[in-house]
Amino acid sequence: MTTNPGFTTPISFLERLKNQTANAHKNLENLPVSSSILSPDLQISDYCHYLALMYEVHKSTQDHIFPLLSAVFPDLEERKKMHLIENDLDFLNYKITGSNAVFRDHDISIPFAIGIVYVVEGSSLGGRYILKNIETIPVLSNQNGVSYFAGYGNKTGSYWKGFLSALTEYQEKHNCEEEIIDGAVYAFDCIHNHFLKTIKNEN
Q1: What is the pTM of this model?
Q2: Could you tell me if 99 and 60 are in contact, meaning their C-beta atoms sit under 8 angstroms apart?
Q3: H helix or E strand, kind and range, residue 126
Q4: Other Cβ atoms closer than 10 A to 154
């Protein structure tokens, strides 16, 4: 909470960041492809489709966004997840065809890029919850094919706290709250459009 008028604490900034991205976040979660991953009737084909969609999200992030942020988040190498998705899809004999740039090329500032990574990193928290549903599928019940949603394992909470700490430290130093929020909304909207427009590949 803000205790001194005119002084913004990291907590209040994070609350505003969460609140101002809530609608975009909800719109993404309400898409059929998003809700399918939590369905008790989840099919392997839907699971593979979701992983393929997220592969392109992470590829776009790692190729275009991470290079801008090495000085802000020194542990970005540990946060890369493309290889986890590749391992899961290999196990399920699913091949990714083509590649779509989720985050379109334009002049992206460091604060705007931080907002994008806030959204992508935040998906790791939900991944731990999704994992419980995925593991009800027999072929995935022995920890095979679930490395992406397993994510950071029991370190997920500490990795998220570390990310938020670096994010708020940067915001306090550079006073760039609106740019970070704009980047986060942009990320949610881009992922929403990506999920909506990408046709399911039956292979």
Answers
A1: 0.91
A2: no
A3: helix 110-134
A4: 8
